[in-house]
Design a protein that fits this description.
heterodimer; B: mainly beta; Porin; four-stranded mixed sheet; 24 strands; globular
């Protein structure tokens, strides 16, 4: 139930990859890393943000079920971001809230508030590969995407749906990741990830994520309105629809404390 | 909790419950089926930008037990807060604790034992509560001016204890009776992997001493609430998928034996614990296809299934003189999370009295249906209860309960 940091989250991180300042003698690894670093830099300064997220789960037969989650994020200078996810639907988990403090150098800290029991539970952040709310998104897909969480390798330039993109591979550094490899298509103009492929621990293609309907906020930050994740092995898919993005809303550090969990 | 600004938010449910006891009980209440309907709603309303009102009424009708048919309020609370403080006044509910089986440190609210045999349900407590949040931890103070009696099943309730607790015979050590003002203080802080809390309580105990009384020819239990002083510690350390949990209290008082109670244990979670079967090609190739309809194959191929292992030891220095049955007991439990669209889960547990008293087996499983409903199945079996154990009166009782709840 943990929605980690940065509302930009949702693999959107990959979105923030950088311009290609290809210098001579740069290795594919150096070039991939440079793209990632520049992308990360481009998303700095958002301060805080809020958004509504609708999650539509679809099984093989096309049967749908829906979740509604409100997300609040706070940028933390020099460390990972803090985020709150408040569940409004399904009704049996209404009011359940998760708080995540992501960290760049030590494990993230996560708490869950269960309103029926008035109980705040600290929970493990090690579970990266598990599904988020029964969906096709794993926790690591929607978590804060720090540069250090992957190593990179630039592959080629390619046209993707009439956009010029960089294609590169990235490899999770966390041994608890459910993936051996991801392939990402980054639009060269806006440096946003249009498509991501996820390869499982056996090296087989597991899922594809396509992001679309990008909107720009504060003349700077690009966010997708729709994310479509398809699991090729199970035939299931999950669509995320974002609405009501707000930036610099005046959220404070105290809004992201354990005590604030009960007051959402 | 919907919409911006919290003008009026609510969460609630309506539930129907069917219980079957396969065997007859001791005593006169030999019914085997029970049904019950309940509703509750928790409303929050921001009266002004600074003041929030929380209301949580509930109602239950029970076919067999008149004591369980009732209307009540779990919360009626006014709250206001700043960045570093919070103030609450009214009927409130507070949870302290970290362990799964029992929470000896959770002393603010009275247990609503008639509602839920596991003791998770609480009755609203009248309180003035001030919290202050600092770099040195969170500090809390409570003034609790009104004591709430524990609820007990009536003569028609099951599982039947053989003898009924009569709330009309309640007495207090304090000469102010139920209006003695209790105080409680708490400090809680996080240190890297550890969350630690310390508390002090001075007032009327939430646990009554049950004294047998014979009035005319009827034997009943009279609850007596002693004055106590309690010092307690709760701590949880989290190391990856391993959680270490401890609750410890020391209680003194004129009418009770000074003693220590503890619950300590661990919970270890195996995330996707069957996924290595597929990753290492331990399963036949044709098993894990999306078309499989064979339940066994589907289970073996479920790489989303998490397994949690819970082990806890429960102890009370007073031994058989404890005010509860968990003086020297071990809980072992398995918790399954299916991580499916219906958020299905299952919990299997055994509580063994190490003094040879009793074994309690428990199974609880639930799943979501039609988006807003949840179906829950609960089974419990009490075994091998010796005559002198606290469970002796419910020896060999067992029941199966099906609950369907609609949430809104």
């Amino acid at each position: 139930m943990l929605f980690t940091a940065k509302t930009r989250s949702l693999a959107v991180a990959a979105i923030l990859l950088a311009p290609c300042t290809a210098t001579l003698a740069e290795t594919p690894e150096e070039r991939g890393l440079a793209i990632a670093i520049e992308g990360d830099k481009r998303d700095q300064g958002y301060v805080d943000s809020t958004a509504n997220m609708k999650m539509i789960l679809r099984n093989r037969a096309g049967k749908e079920s829906t979740r509604n989650v409100r997300i609040k994020s706070l940028e933390v200078e020099g460390d990972g971001d803090k985020s709150l996810s408040i569940f409004d639907e399904p009704a049996d988990v209404k009011g359940t809230t998760s708080l995540t403090w992501s960290h760049s150098t030590k494990p993230d800290e996560q708490w869950l508030y269960l309103p029926a029991l008035k109980r705040v539970k600290r929970i493990s952040s090690k579970n990266k590969s598990g599904p988020f709310m029964g969906s096709e998104f794993a926790f690591e897909d929607i978590g804060s995407q720090e540069v250090d969480k992957y190593t990179y390798k630039y592959l080629r330039d390619e046209d993707f749906e009439s956009a010029k993109t960089f294609v590169m591979e990235r490899y999770p550094t966390d041994k608890n990741s459910g993936y051996t490899k991801q392939v990402v298509w980054i639009e060269q103009d806006r440096y946003i990830a249009l498509k991501l492929e996820f390869y499982d621990r056996k090296g087989s293609l597991l899922k594809t994520l396509v992001s679309s309907d990008f909107q720009q906020y504060l003349d700077k930050f690009w966010r997708p309105s729709t994310l479509e994740m398809t699991n090729h092995q199970s035939g299931k898919s999950t669509t995320l629809v974002f609405s009501d993005y707000q930036f610099q809303t005046g959220l404070k550090s105290s809004d992201f404390s354990k005590n604030a969990l009960k007051k959402q | 909790m919907t919409g911006q600004g919290h003008a009026l938010d609510w969460r609630g449910n309506v539930s129907s419950e069917f219980t079957y006891f396969p065997k007859s009980s001791v005593g006169t209440n030999n019914w085997k089926f029970n049904s019950s309907i309940a509703a509750e709603v928790e409303l929050t309303h921001d009266l002004t930008d600074a003041i929030r009102l929380t209301m949580h009424p509930f109602i239950r009708w029970d076919q067999q037990d008149d004591e369980r048919s009732r209307v009540g309020v779990r919360e009626l609370l006014l709250s206001t807060s700043g960045d570093t403080w919070e103030f609450n006044a009214g009927l409130g509910t507070v949870f302290w604790g970290v362990t799964e089986s029992r929470n000896p440190v959770d002393i603010i609210n009275q247990t609503d034992s008639i509602e839920d045999i596991a003791g998770d349900e609480k009755l609203g407590q009248l309180m003035l509560n001030l919290k202050w949040f600092s770099d040195y931890g969170d500090f809390e103070a409570f003034l609790l001016p009104q004591h709430h009696k524990r609820t007990f099943s009536g003569a028609d309730g099951r599982p039947f204890a053989g003898i009924t607790v009569n709330p009309d015979l309640t007495s207090y050590e304090s000469n102010q009776g139920s209006t003695h003002t209790d105080i409680a203080l708490r400090w809680a802080h996080s240190f890297d992997a550890w969350d630690v809390g310390l508390h002090y309580f001075d007032g009327t105990s939430r646990d009554p001493i049950l004294i047998p009384q014979v009035i005319a020819t009827t034997a009943e239990l009279a609850p007596r609430y002693p004055l106590i002083k309690q010092l307690g510690l709760d701590a949880q350390g989290l190391y990856g998928d391993l959680a270490i949990k401890t609750e410890l209290i020391h209680q003194t008082g004129n009418e009770i034996t000074s003693h220590v109670e503890a619950v300590t244990g661990l919970e270890y979670t195996l995330v996707g614990f069957l996924s290595p079967l597929q990753e290492n090609d331990k399963l036949p190739q044709d098993w894990c296809t999306p078309d499989t309809r064979n339940i066994l194959k589907m289970l073996a191929c479920n790489d989303r299934l998490d397994l949690g292992i819970v082990l806890e030891y429960l102890w009370d220095e007073r031994g058989q003189q404890s005010a509860h049955p968990f003086q020297n007991d071990l809980l072992a439990g398995l918790r399954f999370a299916f991580n499916d669209a219906a958020s299905s889960d299952a919990l299997m547990g055994i509580v063994q009295d190490l003094d040879g008293g009793a074994t309690t087996l428990s199974l609880e499983t639930s799943t979501r249906i039609y988006e807003s409903y949840r179906l829950k199945l609960l089974g419990r079996q009490f075994l091998n209860t010796k005559e002198d154990s606290s469970f002796s009166t419910i020896k060999n009782e067992s029941f199966l309960q099906l609950e369907l709840s609609y949430f809104f």
